[in-house]
Structures are given as C-alpha cells and as structure tokens.
Amino acid sequence: MRADSSPSDAPQTLVALVGTSPTPPLLSALTFAPPRLVLVHSADTLGRAERIAKMARRLCPRIEHTELFDLGRDVYDFRSVDGRFAGLLPTLGGAWRLCYTGGTKVMGIAAVLRHLDLFPEQHHWRSYLDATTDALRFTDGSVHPGGPDSSTLTTTDLAKLHQVDLHPAEPSARPDEGAELEARVLALFRDQLSGIPDSEVIGNQIMPDPGAPEQSIGDFDLIVRYRHRILCVEVKKDPDRIPGAAGWAVTKAKRAFGSATRVLLVHDGEPGACSRFRIADYDPELNGAPLHVRARAELEGEFHTARDLLEGFFLPRHGSTPPDPVQAPVPAQPPGDHPGHNDGPLLLMGVGGSRLGVLAAAHAYRPSQTVLLHTPQSEREVAGLAPAVCHTLFAAENPDEFKALRRRQLPARLRRYRNRVKFGHTAVDASDAARVAALAHAKIDQYASGDTPVVADVTTGTKAMSTGLALAAHARGGCVTYLSPVTRRVSCHAHGPVGSSGVAAVDWSSVLRGYTPLAVPLTGRIHHQLAEEQVDTDLLDSAAAVLREHAGEQGHTPTVWVDGTVLADSAESPLARRSVDQRPTLVVTVADRAVGLTAPCWSRRQRLTPGDWAHAVFAATMRLNAACGVAGLTLALHRPGEGSVRRALDLVDWLAWTETSSEEISGAESQARHGRNPRTATEEITGHEESLRPKVVSATPGTPEFRAALTAHLRGLGV
C-alpha cells in the first residue's frame, strides 16, 4: 500500500464489483486501501468474493471491515440488478468509491449510473482497471497516479486467489539435458531480476490435482512475477515440441493466474527454428495468444539487463503522454416508452466478442441507423460485419422476400442496406469509457434528429466500451439495453424487461470462419489419417444426423458445418491437422443457435490420457464460445467404456474453474457424480462459466439414450 493511496478527504468505503477474474477487485482494494470494502457479487462468484475479502484483509491492514453483497443469480437483467443494488445504498452512508472492472456489464452499468446520479462531479471515485496499460482509469478519462498497488502481492497469493495451490516439484534423481536447459533459463532470470522490487523468480512448481492431491494436474518449469503480472516459462529442448505444447501452456497459465499472464516457450534449437507463426500454423486459434517463443541463444543474447526483460515480457504499452481528461456527459431523463420496431431508433454498439449479439440487436430494433464503434483489436471485424448486419435487417423487415430470393440475388439486394450501417471514424481505446462516450455522443449528434430514439445496446464490446455507450445514451435520454443471447430477453435500464428479441436470421458464414457447409457424411470427406488417429468420425456423423433430424421435426432448416482443416482436400498447413481435436469438428446451426460436436478419439495410436481428452474438449469449447458466446453449446461425444470420461470431466471443470458443478454427463452415464439431470429448456444460463463447459454425451450411436441426450441439449438451447 502506497502512503498516498488514500488521502484524508477520500471516501472511506470502496464498492468493488466481482466477476470471473478476482485480480482487479483485489488490486483496487490494495490501491485505495479503504477502511471498509464492500464486494458486490453474483450467486456464481460468491467463492471469488470470499477469497478476495480474506486476502485483502491480510495484505492491507488499513482494510478493517469487509462485506459481501449478493445480487442474486440473474445479473443480466437491469431491473433485478438495479433493484438489489438500491438496497445496498442506504448502508453505504455518505461518499463511496466504485470499482466497476469486475462483474457483468449489466452490474457495472447499473452501478456506474447510480454513482453518477449521486456524485456527478466525482469522476475520480469511479475507476476501471485497464488490463493493457495497467492504468486505473476514471470516467472523465484521467488516470490514478502510479497505477495499481501490488507491492504486497506474491506469486503464491495470485495462484491462491485463483484457487490453485502451488508446490515445489520434487527434484529429479536423474537430471536430463532438458533439466540442464531449464536451470540455465532459471539462472538467467534470477541474475537479471535480482534486487528488482516487486519481482520473483520461482523454479519448477506443480499444481496438485484437486481430485487426487498426491498427483499433479500440471506444472510450470519456472514462474516469473513482476508486480501483478506473471510470466510462465515452458522449456523444451527440441523446438519441434513447441507447437504441440503451446496450447496447454497458455491454458494452464491462465487457469492458475488469470488474464494478466503471458507464456514464454524456450527451446535449445537454432534461432528461428520455431516461431509464433509456426505455432499459429499448428493451431490457428493461438494466433494472437499471449505467448513468446525464444531459442536459448536468443534469450541469452538479447536480454542483458533487467530492463530488457521487463520491457520484453512485462511492461505494458503506454501512449506517449497521458490523455487530457474528457468531461463525461451529464445525466438526462429517459424517454417515456421503449422504442419499438417501427420507431427506427439509432442503435449504438461496440464491436468485440461474438457477432451474434450485434445481429440479434439489429433484428430486435430494426434501426434506421446502426453505428458500431470498434477498437484497434477488433478492426479486422469491421469489413465482414456490415454485410452480416444488412443480411439480418433484410430478413427481419422483408421475411417473405428473403425466403423467396435466390442466393445469387442476395448481394445486390443487400446493397440497399449499406447506408444504414456505419462505423466510428476512428478506433477507440477499449478501456477508456470517457473517450467512447465522447465519440458516441458525437455520433448521436450526427445521426439522430430531434425525435429519433437512441438505443445503446451493450451486449457486445468490452465493459468499458459498454459503459461509455451507456453514459452517452443516458445523457441524451436514450435507452441502455442488454440482450440475453440465451433467453433472447431484452432488458432496458430504464424500462426493465421489454420482451423478446425474436430469432435473428444469421449469416453463419460470417460467424463460423474457417468452417464450410457439409452436405454429405464426414466419413467421406475427412482426411484418412485424421479419421484413424484424431477424431471419431462415425460418432460425429451419428450425432449430426440426430440433431439435423430433430431440428427438422421442429420446423427448422439446420446446416452442418465442418472445420475446413479436416477435409482431405484442405489447403491449410498440414501442421493444422495435428490440432483438429482442439476445435469442434462439426457445428450444427439451427436458427440463431449453434451446437459444436467434438469427439477426440480414445483409440488413437498414441495413447490418449484423460488430461489430453479434457484439454482437447475444453479448447474446442473455447473456440465455439469465441464465435458464438452462450448461444453456442459444445457437446463432447464419448462411447461408453472408452477411456475415463468421469475423470476427464473433472479436469474440464477445473480448467473452466467451475466452483459449483451440476451434472453434465448425459446418456448411458447420466447418473454419475451428483445424479442431476442435464439442463432443461426452462433453466437459464446466467453464469459466464457455464458457456465454457462442454456437455458430455456418453451413449452408443443408434440407441434411444443417444437420441434422447442430444435432443435434450438442443431443447436446452431454446430450439
């Protein structure tokens, strides 16, 4: 805790929202050091809030009281969240700070707008942790001097915060050449960072298996910490082993330490023998992952000082000078009624995450103008997103013509909609709510006439972008909405639930990039080596046939999509075929929903362990989640009697950091573990974690159990 972190006139209470990442609320607590810390959480994040409270009291003696406040399970409905949050306000007394980095967007926006109404001029009491620059940003665009305070944190603390206990690995009785390389890399980091404050270099550590503490669920060759950032180092003597190790290295590092983590892969080959490009060829999903690759010779030749190491692996990218503060918009009254289909509102959204949220909002509001603000990271999304929005608008407004139109006629018809989709003239900083608000305010002035309703939909984009859009819309008397991708419920900050968005027409080719429609069974198209060694094609074909048949019985026209890298005539790099089990092999799209199918082959030539199967299934789930969010569901297919599926599912739960598990094996092994049934159509998925968990279907193809399990999951998606 810095001496100047909490001046005498500062609020004595900090309200911090808790989400899936526990690090930002803890850093805010350590930085502002309030005598009273109130952690606002959902039913899903109670365990995280408890760990934050305990660690905050231990690391910061100035924090005398910690309290937990539960917003319940449905933290995606503005009326529910705002109503519960209003119950907290009388207990806060006078002035209070707000850290809104954690929690859902609905939680954050409801809290920010409440705080803005109470303390309109106190922007420096509302903060958001910028994960890119490590700046605590306020709602006027200024930043907290000095950044977050992590001076009392240790590597062990950060791991425990993420429910991981690290233990030193037992020294090997027979050190090999790999151990010698590991020792050299360890010595380099220790020599260079010796005496550097807020740094640690720790040798080989293991993560005990929660289900079998005497065993290891994963290990790190060495861990380097600088402030609250972590570098996990994986050492492989042979550079050819690097691509296959990269995915698991990133997965376990993020699980143990959260998003402020990077991975360094070191090999003993020639410089350039392996690179990020080769890793991306092996697994395209790792393109842009937080990892570095270095040969030992490069590491020893390029990094001569501590400054070299810190700038290369830890220090965030800052702009040349901090930006001047921006005056946040002044609150105004919302309109009397929520705009309907025929009101032609101006729709403001941020680009980021799944495209399905943008398409669903376009379908729900039928806007006269759609303005999409993008970041430098999402700039590549812009070109392909406009045609997809036009496709959805045309289908919503002219459904009969859309159905009758031939596919080759569609592009010409969609050109009439181009002038209704606009983008910000410049990219915005995804963590700067004030500048997003300023740009959104300018777009409202540009495109909304005096009586044009304004809707800022915050379903997509980052939390700070969504907050900026909300500030701008709130100031112009507009509506701030969130559209649930699962239930299709539209929730408005001013009006509460306002109905359903309906089912949007989705141009799936723009969402499932890298996939192509499959009109015949996979068995006849897949590369023969993959069918023998990687995926169970018969199981995949059987599941796709059941889903297609059931969807057709419900009046839908499903489409089966196949990962392009598995096809025999694929032009992709042969390296990519070695990671096909880490992506859904097939995706069945039904209306605005997607079901990913993955079936890593237990009987492959090289023995598949439960850990291998769990990592492959989890990676495939993450891939579909990135494209579809919670509107996508991954089914991991398994033949009864093959491998240890229950053990593998325990490992998947650990990877997804699921603290309260429900039964997720359906079919022949549906009574395993807790004995609960699979999720039904009446249940809601409200936790972010749930969308990161695959559902395991363990049944023999052609049996009633196989069909029942698959159709139950399809109904659970709302089809």
Explain how this protein is built.
It is a single chain. The strands form 5 sheets. A 7-stranded mixed β-sheet has the order 17-16-15-18-19-20-21, sandwiched between helices. A 7-stranded mixed β-sheet has the order 22-23-24-25-26-28-27, with helices on both faces. Strands 3-2-1-4-5-6 form a 6-stranded mixed β-sheet, with helices on both faces. Strand 9 and strand 10 form a beta hairpin. About 4% of the residues have low confidence. The longest helix has 19 residues. It contains 22 helices and 28 strands. Helix 11 packs parallel to helix 12 and helix 15 packs across helix 16. With 719 residues, it is α/β, with parallel strands linked by helices. The protein folds into 4 domains: 126 residues, Rossmann fold, CATH 3.40.50; 159 residues, Trna Endonuclease, Chain: A, domain 1, CATH 3.40.1350; 160 residues, Rossmann fold (3-Layer(aba) Sandwich); 205 residues, no CATH class.
